[in-house]
Amino acid sequence: MYADDIKSIDHPTLIPVPKNKQMSHYFENYSYSAVIYDKYRNVYYRMVERPWKEYHQDMDWMPWLKQLSIVILDEDLNFIGETLLDMEYRITASQFMVTAEGLLLHNRTDDEDELIFDLFTLTKL
User: Dihedral sign, CA of 31, 9, 56, 5?
Assistant: First the structure.
């Protein structure tokens, strides 16, 4: 719903891709990450990493700055919907848990002694 075409990197297969080209491609394009099965609701969640619009090759980069959306799929992997997450969930693509109450998403804070998860629930199936 939010993602345009997801393009492969334009580089010859047998030649190693330079690091700056890899990073540019990653930050400037949509990409998929985790697929999560929710046994309580019999749906799948697919994390989509959105392009980082402010990225340019000369800046210091941090891979968790890409905004995420969650694609929701039914048990047959048919599209149900998609929701765009706020930027505080930008590292959630690998930090989540499925519970009977819903999908727990890691909410980033600046306090390393604090671990906060917010509950994501489906409002309509």
Answer: negative
pLDDT at 122: 86
* Cα torsion 76, 77, 83, 86: sign: positive
For residue range 65-105, list pLDDT tens digits in order: 678 899 999 999 999 999 998 887 776 667 889 999 999 99
Helix or strand or coil: residue 7? coil
Q: What SS3 class is residue 33?
A: strand
β partners of residue 41: none
Strand intervals (E) in 9-67: 31-38, 43-49
The pLDDT value recorded for residue 45 is 94
